[in-house]
Predict the structure.
Amino acid sequence: MLATNYKLKGALFNHLILSLLALSIILPILILFFNSIKPQSELLNNPLGFPSTLRLMNYYEAFMFGNYSRIMFNSALFVFGTLIVCLPLSALASFSLAILSPKGKVTATIAVYLLVGLSIPAQLYILPLFILWKNLYLNNTYIGLIIIYSALNAPFAVFLMRSYMMQLPKELFEAAKVDGANTFELFYKIALPLSWPVFLTSGLIVGLAVWNEFLFAITFIQDENFKPISTILFSFSDKFAHNYSLISAASIMMAAPIGILFILFQRNFIAGLTSGGLKG
Amino acid sequence: MNIFLSSNFIKWYFLLPVLIIHFLVIIFPSLTSLILCFTDWNGFGTINFVGLENFRELFDDRVFKKSLKHNLIWTILFLTIPIAVALLGAYLLTGVKRFQLFYRFIFFFPYILASVVNCLIWKYLFHPMHGIGAYFSSLGFDFLTTSPLTNKSTSLYAVAWVDGWHFWGFLVVIYITAMYQVDESLYEAADIEGATKWQKFRHVTFPMIRPTFFFSILIIIIWSVPAFDYVHMLTNGGPAYSSEVLANFLYYEAFYQMKVGYASSIGALMFVYVFLVTGLFGLFRYLGWDL
């Protein structure tokens, strides 16, 4: 009796602390949401509470004034463009590292090379890269930034995919080889179809990183027509400095796709993001 | 059979595309930067080698020294508060069965939100006219009457608060994954001995998650060096350089002043530091230290 009582108390204490921690995260996000459906005039006398009058027009206005249809298109293009370039290239490299030479000098060398690459702060190379891209006429272009994003995210994608492909049964590849399949057939007939779970995970992580990315977007895209949502939202907050309702609505529109994907694929996100350690 | 189709070469063909773009985007510009840091180049015109002049100038630069100090404070802040909160959160999470996935979902959520969104949330909340301060003053309390972001003595800590708010849930998930690897029988043995919660944490949980714990320390040290987004968006280093950090200082020198050589020397120092820290950790692991 005493023991269960003690246990119950312990559980209550746990839930008390945990729910306080959870509130410290939920409340700020909830306030952002409340503000996004509040008329601007209500912000002053009701800063944090639930809106007394709903104003969904904020979303419409933010969408129109911010030219959001164009910006959403830009961001989507950066995300899918990067996925189309980064994932197949990473899959090829992972296949080589995991299946063609699972052990040996090549793999070790490449692993060290990519690790050194990951530990280079972006600030070391961003300026020479900017000058290089300017000379190649890649600044202010979709493809220029897509190449950068693909290169930035490839080591991480390779890391994820390689550890997945290492676990594929070797017998399958041996059998196919006996049947006369060449190396490329081994790749797209066996490795690719078996590895789709890891493509989903790495696709989600890479897509998330690109959607949220700020430093390279603000550096390499100055033309308003090509800017993705992260840098637009940043300049938006300067332009409409006093209209927090519009800014909140714009922020919610940026966060919503990520939030929905996170609810659907929580496990993939968490497993992917914590397995390597991606820049956050 | 053609030598270029032998299996030795084929594995390189598969690797080549990734290696090419990685070299083009990261390695080649990095090497360029490591050379340019010994020059006075301003982006166009001739390139003159000036030896260590940039580094000499850096250590006379008041703003650089301030940024360096702030990066150090930043690292220490992140090595203490988020780790402590995350250890507490993860440890308590292992003790509850109900709502566990819900808590985990909530804690991790800000980590996947864009830095812009997180910054805007807190810029608003810190705003004296309609944030937390306004709410408290309507209740008759003086709390946050000015935004801590615009105050010289608090700006750096306010920015770190926002970054830390979005980051600690990541640590919770890393720690809890490690905590679930701990053998249940160890806790049962501790229960029989009558160990308190703290004793169980100190003598069972913590020793078992040590590798993960040191991994988190490594990534915090490494990630503190290029910290940029939150500083740039919330204060841009101000007011009066009170929240300036190396990455933002470098960005200003590079893209507003076009001092390519000077900016490269900051980047080179950041790289050398990160490289040494990573190398030391690798060396300790190699030597078999229990890190």
